[in-house]
Write a structure and sequence with these properties.
Blueprint lengths: L2 H39 L1 H4 L10 H21 L4 H13 L4 E8 L2 E8 L17 E3 L5 H8 L3 E3 L8 H7 L6 E9 L2 E10 L7 H39 L7 H29 L1 H10 L2 H4 L1 H12 L5 H12 L17
Antiparallel strand pairs: 1-2, 1-6, 2-3, 4-5, 5-6
Helix pairs in contact: 3-4, 3-7, 4-7, 8-11, 8-12
């Protein structure tokens, strides 16, 4: 084969091989670029987790605090009655102090509603004993001070001349620091929130204020929430037979049926009347003594009755609870009320 032809043949082969190599390189290059682009667009490319050893203690604490506030905001705001609401309120406050208590202002005295964190050890009272405590409004205590001045107090346990009365009833050791705040119902200071601390434990005042504010707002909205829930429940009961055929002859369904008919009206009546009592604390004690509850609370009583009758027809259950709770068992204190049942 002439030299020229050999050269052309070799060049042809080399060109083909070169083209093939270039093609593969370009293909590989394109694939690499695509993969790099996919990597940068992946969510995992931008997400990362800070190691625990790099996090500051303050960041951890703040995160836990926000989580607790969120949890108790939900618990308080979704409470279905005032007892449950205040229990959740005190439980939430106690997360940010050693002990917490709520005292209602009733006429001329402060009456313990409930407490949490009281140990019942070494001379200290227990949580349930807080309900037995009352302090005269005439005593010059921090409770009276914050009600009269409508502002909170944070500082030493003994700030007013008669504060020793509080701790003599609590028993045990005197706290290092206290935080006391008025609790508003319908815009009026009608209760006192008490929190204290011992040793190195700090009182998280801002957190307590947030929970207290949520409690006030939720308590004011509770009657509207209860009416809404009652309507929803009534709708559920009316729709239930269409959804599911219930054989009332079977014992399990019979028990449920009787429980619904017998117990729910009583519970509803108690919740409604307890709310009436809470919102009219300043009026009720005097009205009980003078036996003119119906005259003093005419509109509120009729509104409570109307709310009950929206769901249940047995008026005797409502009127029994009205006497038991509102009149403290004294039917004569409801003089003038048009009783519709004999019991």
């Amino acid at each position: 084969m002439p030299d020229e032809k050999v050269k052309i043949f070799i060049d042809s082969i080399l060109n083909k091989k070169m083209s093939l190599v270039i093609s593969k390189i370009n293909s590989l290059k394109s694939e690499i670029e695509t993969n790099l682009k996919n990597i940068t667009q992946s969510d995992d490319f931008f997400t990362y987790e800070i190691p625990k050893y790099l996090e500051t203690k303050e960041e951890n604490i703040e995160g836990e605090k926000i989580s607790l506030l969120h949890r108790y905001t939900l618990k308080i705001s979704t409470s279905t009655n005032q007892i449950n609401l205040i229990d959740n309120l005190l439980e939430g406050i106690n997360l940010f102090c050693n002990r917490a208590a709520l005292f209602l202002l009733r006429d001329d005295k402060f009456v313990g509603w409930g407490g949490i964190g009281f140990s019942n050890k070494n001379g200290e009272i227990g949580n349930n004993d807080v309900k037995k405590i009352f302090l005269s409004f005439s005593a010059n205590t921090i409770f009276r001070y914050i009600i009269n001045n409508k502002k909170k107090y944070s500082g030493k346990a003994l700030s007013q001349p008669d504060d020793h009365l509080i701790y003599s009833r609590f028993g045990g050791e005197k706290p290092n620091k206290i935080f006391v705040s008025p609790f508003y119902v319908n815009g009026k200071p009608q209760a006192v929130i008490y929190a204290d601390s011992f040793g190195d434990k700090e009182i998280e005042e801002k957190a307590i204020e947030v929970i207290s504010t949520i409690g006030e707002m939720s308590l004011n909205l509770l009657p509207f929430r209860q009416k809404l829930l009652a309507r929803v429940k009534t709708k559920e009961f009316s729709e239930e037979p269409e959804k599911e055929k219930i054989d009332l002859r079977e014992p399990i369904y019979e028990d449920f049926f009787h429980s619904t008919k017998k117990n729910d009206p009583e519970r509803k009546a108690r919740v409604i009347i307890n709310d009436l009592v809470l919102y009219n604390e300043l009026t009720i004690d005097e009205a009980r003594k003078s036996k003119n509850l119906y005259k003093s609370l005419h509109d509120a009583i009729l509104q409570a009755k109307e709310e009950y009758l929206k769901k249940f027809n047995d008026i005797s259950i409502f009127e029994k609870q009205l006497v038991k709770i509102l009149a403290n068992g004294d039917k004569e204190a409801l003089r003038g009320y048009p009783f519709e049942s004999l019991f």
